[in-house]
Design a protein that fits this description.
Radius of gyration: 49 Å
Structural class: alpha+beta
Number of helices: 8
Distance between the termini: 152 Å
Oligomer: single chain
Length: about 300
């Protein structure tokens, strides 16, 4: 190669390269395969063999700089992502801890356990019988008390029509009992009277017929009267009568649900019929009884009969 005339020897730099006119002037290069020790400060503009360029402390891949006056600072973005990740993990641990603590308090601790059982609404059924049927053990976590199952067990008591069981936090179970109410008095086979409700369930036995309970004469066995529609219709009619008229009923019969017949004090018979039109029938009967008859029929709408 020539000298000053424009030809250069191998290994010599051209004036343009020396002056920085080369496209890569001012750019340092790291040779392929070179190892960079830890802690080494890499000057700006250094080219790494894989195409990465160091600019203002920022790593730019393939020599491409992001838009804007300054290159994007990816290390700072990574730091922000790490912080968000740690924050999310922290809050997740806090929530898990709160849930675990709540579960322990409800299911495993002695803080919220059954310490007392309150029974209300009982007159015929002893409180001890209700508690025995309920089966709620002191010390049971209150959350584990299945109120529906407890109520179902109490309903098996014959004199109980229904029960409502509730949890009273922090340590109490409340049982509200609704007992069956006698509606009719049936002659008992061994003497006395079986007092039954509208469902035909024997509530209790009495040696004498209560004055406020009409007699329901029947020879059918008690077991067949439970859910009997004739007895249910008779009890329903009695419940619809005005108080003055009801107190005068001595007995009631029901050959069928629409043929309920009342026998009043003084030998008066009233064919009431079914459970419909209770108010209208009561008004019609009040007018008819002014005739001082012994038999009245108000069973059919628009047709009344007196004898």
């Amino acid at each position: 190669m020539t000298g000053p005339s424009g030809t250069f020897r191998d290994g010599e730099a051209s004036p343009h390269e020396a002056a920085g006119d080369s496209p890569t002037s001012g750019v340092n290069a790291v040779s392929d395969g070179a190892l960079i020790p830890d802690g080494t400060v890499i000057p700006d503009g250094t080219v790494i063999p894989d195409g990465t360029v160091i600019l203002d402390g920022t790593v730019i891949l393939d020599g491409t700089a992001p838009s804007g006056d300054r290159p994007a600072r990816q290390p700072r973005a990574r730091t922000s992502k790490r912080r968000r990740g740690w924050r999310a993990a922290f809050f997740a641990l806090v929530v898990a801890g709160i849930i675990g603590a709540a579960a322990w308090v409800l299911f495993g601790s002695r803080l919220l356990v059954v310490r007392s059982v309150i029974v209300t609404g009982t007159h015929l059924v002893p409180r001890s019988e209700v508690l025995a049927a309920a089966g709620v053990q002191p010390g049971t976590p209150l959350i584990r008390v299945n109120t529906a199952q407890v109520a179902a067990r109490i309903d098996t008591i014959r004199q109980v029509q229904g029960a409502r069981v509730t949890r009273s936090w922090p340590d109490r179970v409340v049982i509200a009992v609704r007992e069956r109410t006698p509606a009719l008095a049936l002659p008992a086979p061994g003497g006395g009277y079986d007092l039954v409700d509208a469902d035909g369930v024997v509530v209790r036995w009495a040696a004498r017929r209560p004055a406020d309970l009409p007699l329901y004469p029947t020879v059918a066995p008690l077991a067949s009267l439970r859910g009997d529609p004739d007895l249910a219709a008779a009890a329903a009619v009695l419940g619809e009568l005005p108080a003055r008229l009801r107190h005068s009923v001595d007995s009631v019969t029901a050959p069928s649900p629409d043929q309920v017949t009342l026998r009043l004090s003084g030998g008066i018979t009233v064919l009431w019929g079914g459970t419909d039109r209770a108010g209208a029938k009561a008004q019609e009967l009040t007018v008819l009884m002014r005739t001082h008859g012994n038999y009245y029929d108000v069973s059919a709408q628009g047709t009344v009969l007196t004898k």
